[in-house]
């Protein structure tokens, strides 16, 4: 297959993370006016209290709400969006009595079909309360779903609850609604229901009645069934208007949510189980400010930490009085303080937390981390041993014990400092992520081949030509002095621009460097193949990160990012005068065949008849949203189908990656052998990927490393960086979103297509790689000029 040049269009890849990952956008929607406002406020409270882990956008359709009403709605939901309907649109409807409130309300909810920003919208009527789990509705992927009418036949849907998928949120479907409305060819009662029933003619997905359990079924003061998920107060008499005789038990359920804001916030903070970060922060912040509740402050701080808001976590816990013996808040505050580089204060909090056996192992682990950050391996080792004495299974302490038995960054052997390059990188410890383990060596091979007098042969992790600096250790005055004694400083590789891996307050990205020490570097600074790795839904501490980034770019003699998507993201954070300094350098793992001395491609027939699958579970909520069960079921289909042609294996870059094998076995009776690549050395990682026929990977380096070894790939896209790489090599068809409705069939089709003519697929990989190698060689010429190689 003939190689074609890399597409220039790669530089204009879309910036929307959602557009790149295919992650479904979900929202709730209701039509609200002043008459039904009390009902809507109760609905919002009931949704949060019965589904505390759910927080999607909530669209409020309205034609005129008072400012006070808008404020009362905003107080109950952090992601509310107001959408004013065009009332005049419905003047042409044949049976439209615009002075009739029920008619207006029924028509105006139809505006939900005119929204275009979402893949799934769930409508809830303002005379409903949510009593149970809505997971099933959030996971629906097909059609327009509703509960059939209880009294009038299964072929008609009941109004109030609709689960609407993207194909119905279209101009075409709206035109059908308008045509029906203008013709008058629908039932008079409940016009939205009548119009939709006429348009759909019974063609809708039928849901269980518990999702729209109408009040009329409880006549005679019957109790609400326990399985009811949504209770709908149909009829003229609403609970907030005095109610109706014969429905006392039903109306008692509604009044559970007739709360003041303060009562509601307190009730939410007291719920058990999974709580959504946005809800915890909104309700908990106000609750803590009013009450000084320490446990609520801990929950809010923990929510901030999980989304990278370390300063906010420190602030809220510092605002309350924490009793000396209340160890959990001390431990969380210590975590927050160390994450913003207030290390002395953090140690005080962590020592207090270590007084409890329940919190001691974690607290000693964090104390060990602080000592290690400051270069005190002996103290780090001692703290880790104290933690293991409390809990011998505590993984962070076990890893720190191993890390500090010897130094994981071997001291340079012979050679004068002025002949060395300093190298800032994330040096992965034992049982760490296999991709990150390989990266420092790959960067050294690429830079060393370009600049060293002996080519790349002596570019080893501990060789005399390199001085290693772990990115996560504090870059202090002594480290600065050592760097300034070298020929230059190389920073890379990997996704160092990420806010929550080794957080610190000095830079707000992975290199723990204060501004004064960054600006004190007086040797050439080379930023090589770094990635902007924020997930869809993640954010940086903008002020600190942007300032550090700008200073780094200004200080750099060479600043290159590993994909054009990262280039766009970083340029957007910089003044225009610095845009031209940001250039493209592919991750060196993608050109492994060109870098490894003596590399030999496997001959035809030498590859193992295997396909390797990798899945990632860090930040699973950001990766999968509500679609993990769908992803797992579709992967089971693909594994079964591919298993009829080849052996399918699970390749685990980190220990957590093995979860897909456990889940497939438990949920779908599909078994996969597991390759523990996190235990491999770099040669074994490359050899394993070079010998398989195809890798289907979710981690960035489960695509880039096999690609660099000449092996065909398919990316399971749950992060924008996967799409960035495929755009750069002009092969977007090598990626499938984990959210794709037909993931299993599509993955099988594309995998078999690559396997059927494997020689051509390998040749295509080689051709794409050659284009990346040309970029690497062109950059090498500039590096030679900068470093004098």
Descriptive overview:
- Keywords: Transferase.
- This is Polysaccharide pyruvyl transferase family protein.
- By secondary structure, the protein is of the alpha/beta class.
- The chain is 43% helix and 13% strand.
- The chain has 31 helices and 25 strands.
- Helix 18 (434-451) links the parallel strand 13 (421-425) and strand 14.
- The longest helix is centred in the C-terminal third of the chain and has 30 residues, at 758-787.
Task: Please outline what is shown here.
Pfam families: Glyco_transf_8, PS_pyruv_trans. This protein is an alpha/beta fold and 789 residues long.
Discrete helix count: 31
Instruction: Report Rg.
Output: 29 Å
Q: What is the subunit organization of this protein?
A: single chain
Q: Looking across the biggest beta sheet, what order are the strands in?
A: 3-2-1-4-9-6-10
Domain Polysaccharide pyruvyl transferase: 489-717
Pfam family, one: PS_pyruv_trans
Organism: Streptomyces niveus
Protein name: Polysaccharide pyruvyl transferase family protein
Question: Strands, helices and their partners?
Answer:
Blueprint: H1 17-21, E1 26-31, H2 37-50, E2 57-62, H3 67-74, E3 80-84, H4 101-108, E4 120-123, E5 128-130, H5 135-138, E6 144-146, E7 148-149, E8 153-157, E9 162-165, H6 171-183, H7 191-200, E10 205-206, E11 213-214, E12 230-232, H8 248-255, H9 261-269, H10 277-291, H11 294-306, H12 310-318, H13 327-339, H14 343-353, H15 357-373, H16 377-390, H17 395-405, E13 421-425, H18 434-451, E14 466-470, H19 477-484, E15 488-491, E16 494-497, H20 515-518, E17 525-532, H21 542-555, E18 558-561, H22 564-571, E19 582-584, H23 592-595, E20 610-614, H24 620-624, H25 628-643, E21 647-652, H26 659-668, E22 674-676, H27 682-691, E23 694-697, H28 701-708, E24 713-717, H29 720-728, E25 735-737, H30 743-756, H31 758-787
């Amino acid at each position: 297959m003939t190689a074609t040049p890399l597409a220039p269009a790669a530089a204009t890849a879309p910036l929307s993370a959602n557009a790149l990952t295919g992650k479904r956008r979900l929202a709730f929607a209701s039509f609200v006016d002043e008459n039904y406002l009390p009902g809507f406020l109760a609905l919002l409270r009931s949704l949060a209290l019965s589904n505390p882990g759910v927080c999607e956008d909530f669209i409020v359709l309205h034609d005129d709400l008072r400012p006070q009403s808008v404020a009362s709605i905003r107080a109950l939901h952090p992601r509310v969006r107001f959408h004013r309907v065009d009332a005049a649109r419905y003047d042409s409807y044949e049976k439209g009595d615009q002075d009739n409130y029920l008619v207006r309300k029924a028509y105006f909810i139809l505006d939900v079909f005119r929204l275009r920003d979402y893949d799934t919208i769930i409508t809830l009527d303002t005379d409903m309360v949510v009593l149970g789990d809505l997971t099933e509705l959030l996971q629906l992927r097909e059609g327009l779903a509703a509960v059939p009418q209880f009294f009038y036949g299964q072929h008609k849907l009941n109004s109030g609850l609709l689960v609407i998928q993207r194909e119905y949120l279209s101009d075409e479907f709206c035109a059908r609604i308008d045509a029906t409305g203008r013709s008058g060819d629908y039932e008079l009662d409940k016009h939205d229901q009548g119009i939709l029933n006429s348009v759909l003619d019974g063609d809708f997905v039928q849901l269980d009645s518990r999702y729209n359990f109408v009040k009329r079924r409880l006549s005679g003061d019957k109790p609400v069934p326990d399985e009811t998920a949504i209770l709908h107060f149909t009829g003229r008499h609403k609970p907030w208007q005095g109610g109706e005789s014969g429905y006392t038990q039903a109306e008692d359920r509604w009044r559970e949510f007739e709360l003041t804001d303060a009562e509601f916030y307190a009730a939410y903070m007291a719920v058990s189980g999974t709580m959504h970060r946005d809800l915890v922060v909104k309700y908990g912040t106000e609750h803590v400010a009013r009450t000084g509740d320490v446990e609520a402050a801990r929950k809010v701080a923990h929510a901030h930490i999980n989304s990278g808001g370390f300063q906010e976590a420190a602030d809220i816990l510092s605002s309350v009085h924490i009793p000396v013996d209340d160890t959990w808040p001390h431990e969380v505050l210590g975590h927050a303080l160390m994450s913003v580089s207030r290390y002395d204060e953090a140690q005080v909090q962590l020592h207090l937390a270590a007084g409890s056996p329940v919190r001691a192992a974690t607290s000693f682990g964090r104390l060990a981390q602080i000592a290690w950050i400051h270069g005190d391996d002996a103290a780090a080792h001692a703290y880790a041993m104290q933690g293991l004495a409390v809990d011998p299974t505590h993984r962070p302490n076990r890893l720190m014990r191993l890390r500090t038995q010897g130094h994981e960054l071997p001291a340079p052997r012979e050679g004068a400092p002025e002949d060395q390059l300093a190298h800032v990188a994330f040096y992965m410890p034992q049982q760490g992520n296999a991709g990150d383990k390989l990266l420092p060596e790959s960067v050294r091979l690429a830079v060393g081949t370009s600049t060293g007098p002996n080519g790349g042969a002596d570019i080893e992790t501990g060789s005399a030509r390199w001085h290693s600096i772990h990115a996560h250790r504090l870059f202090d005055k002594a480290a600065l002095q050592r760097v300034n004694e070298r020929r230059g400083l190389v920073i890379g590789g990997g996704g160092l621009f990420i806010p929550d891996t080794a957080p610190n307050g000095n830079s707000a990205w992975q290199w723990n460097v204060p501004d004064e020490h960054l600006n004190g570097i007086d040797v050439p600074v080379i930023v090589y193949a770094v990635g902007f790795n924020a997930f869809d839904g993640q954010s940086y501490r903008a002020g600190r990160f942007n300032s550090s980034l700008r200073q780094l770019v200004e200080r750099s003699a060479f600043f290159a990012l590993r994909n054009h998507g990262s280039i766009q993201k970083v340029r957007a954070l910089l003044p225009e005068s610095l845009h031209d300094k940001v250039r493209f350098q592919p991750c060196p793992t993608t050109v492994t065949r060109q870098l490894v001395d003596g590399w030999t491609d496997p001959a035809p027939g030498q590859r193992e008849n295997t396909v390797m699958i990798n899945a990632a579970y860090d930040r699973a909520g950001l990766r999968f949203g509500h679609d993990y069960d769908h992803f797992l079921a579709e992967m089971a289909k693909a594994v079964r189908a591919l298993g009829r042609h080849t052996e399918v294996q699970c390749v685990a870059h980190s220990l957590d990656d093995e979860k897909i094998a456990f889940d497939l076995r438990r949920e779908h009776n599909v078994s996969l052998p597991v390759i523990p690549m996190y235990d491999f050395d770099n040669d074994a990682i490359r050899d394993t990927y070079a010998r398989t026929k195809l890798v289907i990977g979710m981690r960035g380096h489960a695509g880039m490393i096999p690609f660099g070894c000449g092996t065909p790939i398919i990316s399971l896209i749950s992060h924008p960086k996967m799409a960035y790489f495929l755009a750069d090599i002009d092969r977007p068809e090598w990626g499938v979103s984990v959210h794709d409705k037909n993931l299993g069939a599509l993955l099988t089709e594309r995998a078999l297509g690559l396997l059927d003519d494997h020689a051509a697929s390998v040749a295509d990989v080689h051709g794409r790689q050659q284009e990346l190698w040309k970029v690497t060689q062109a950059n090498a010429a500039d590096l030679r000029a900068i470093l004098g190689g």
